[in-house]
Automatic annotation (TrEMBL):
A GO MF term: hydrolase activity
SUPFAM superfamilies reported for this sequence: alpha/beta-Hydrolases (SSF53474)
Domain BD-FAE-like: 130-325
InterPro entries named among the record's database cross-references: AB_hydrolase_fold, BD-FAE-like_dom, GDXG_lipolytic_enzyme
Protein name: Alpha/beta hydrolase
Length: 386
């Protein structure tokens, strides 16, 4: 009976991982947990199989046979899913140690070295969190990070552990703030202006902080991925206007599950109350996108595609229930056809924020190691030739 119960947990989630995450909570959980707890589910399945085999040897009855079969299925399924995630990461140049990934850590790592106000807007300071390289450098490569949160929530330190990790490897990391929409006050035109202001501040202060602005990579997740792409692509075309100063040209863009297509997000439901795609898009735009075509055009990343856009890495979880994976893949293909150097990495059995539930998880290691490999190959990592 113990083996039966232990095997049931990973087996239910194996089945859930094969379901559409937008259609049921079961499918959502099945795709949300494997990139965090895959190795744990493998161990649980193997333990269940061992107990089932032991019980079968001693009491060869129907219930022990059923327990053994369930445990075997759970072991095969969990090993396949976890191995597929690791293999996809390796194919993209990343690296995951499944044993090390058993030891999860908090996404909070003590906070930034400094938080500064880059501007004051509507009486509120627009902030930037600064993570300095572990070893002082005269010209460290620079990462500018734009957080996610559906344009409604989030903060400059929500991925604190990752930002500190990149700084410890030698990057100057600056996470920039932007206005989030409260109910009835859309920020479709304000959030991009704030990110541009943060980028202009970084352009003026990177050298003072020990960074080389000529080796700038702009990173962003979800809503922040939209803002990162739009800013970097527009800056490369000279289309960014801000009173905060000159916006630098990025050498690369690295985004995850970017909200590139507001219409696709609006029409794609997600079974989590209080964070539905339709509500997020409506709140950001100030109404239905069908009634706001000019605003949709202003925030859609398709608007900013051109053949001089910086090289771009896009990480897309294949079972994303918030930002539809197909919409991200379609954007990547469209940008490639327009002449943009886009590398698309699909993360199997993964949902939205697959990397942010716990530091050191499978998904977290995938995000970190693939990003480092990509930037190193392009001379944008500490110690890389440029």
């Amino acid at each position: 009976m113990t083996a039966f119960l232990l095997a049931s947990i990973p087996l239910v989630l194996v089945i859930g991982a094969l379901r559409d995450p937008t259609k049921s909570v079961h499918g959502m959980l099945g795709s949300a947990l494997w990139t965090t707890l895959g190795p744990h589910f493998m161990l649980l399945s193997l333990l269940a199989f061992g107990l089932g085999f032991y019980a079968f040897r001693r009491w060869p009855r129907k219930i022990t046979v059923l327990s053994l079969v369930l445990a075997g299925c759970a072991s095969i399924g969990s090993t396949f899913i976890t191995g597929t995630i690791i293999a996809a990461t390796n194919m993209a140049g990343g690296k995951i140690n499944p044993l090390s990934s058993l030891f999860l850590r908090s996404m909070t790592a003590g906070g930034p070295d400094e938080t500064v106000a880059v501007a004051t807007i509507d009486g509120r300071p627009l902030q930037a969190a600064i993570y300095r390289p572990a070893l002082p450098q005269s010209a460290a490569p620079v990462l500018m990070y734009v957080h996610g949160g559906g344009f409604m929530t989030g903060s400059v330190t929500e991925t604190d552990a990752d930002l500190r990790w990149f700084a410890d490897l030698g990057w100057l990391v600056v996470s920039v703030d932007y206005r989030l929409f409260p109910e009835g006050a859309p920020t479709w035109d304000l959030a991009p202006a704030d990110v541009a202001c943060g980028a202009a501040w970084l352009n003026s202060n990177a050298a003072r902080l020990g960074g080389d602005i000529d080796r700038l990579a702009v990173l962003g997740d979800s809503a922040g991925g939209n803002l990162a792409i739009n800013l970097a692509y527009a800056a490369a075309r000279g289309d960014v206007e801000t009173d905060c100063g000159e916006v630098p040209n990025a050498s690369a863009v690295v985004v995850q599950y970017p909200a590139v297509d507001p219409l696709a997000i609006y029409e794609h439901w997600f079974p989590v109350r209080g964070f539905q795609p339709r509500m997020l898009v409506t709140g950001y735009l100030g109404g239905s996108p069908h009634a706001q075509p000019d605003r949709v055009r202003a925030v859609s990343s398709y608007t900013y595609i051109h053949d001089r856009a910086p090289q771009t890495l896009i990480l897309s979880p294949e079972q994303d229930g918030l930002v539809p994976a197909w919409s991200v893949i379609r954007f990547a293909e469209h940008a490639q056809q327009a002449g943009v150097d886009v590398e698309l990495v699909r993360i199997p059995f993964a949902n939205h924020v697959y990397n942010q539930i716990a530091a050191n998880s499978l998904g977290n290691r995938a995000r970190r190691s693939i990003t480092v490999h990509y930037l190193t190959e392009r001379g944008l990592a500490p110690g890389a030739s440029h």
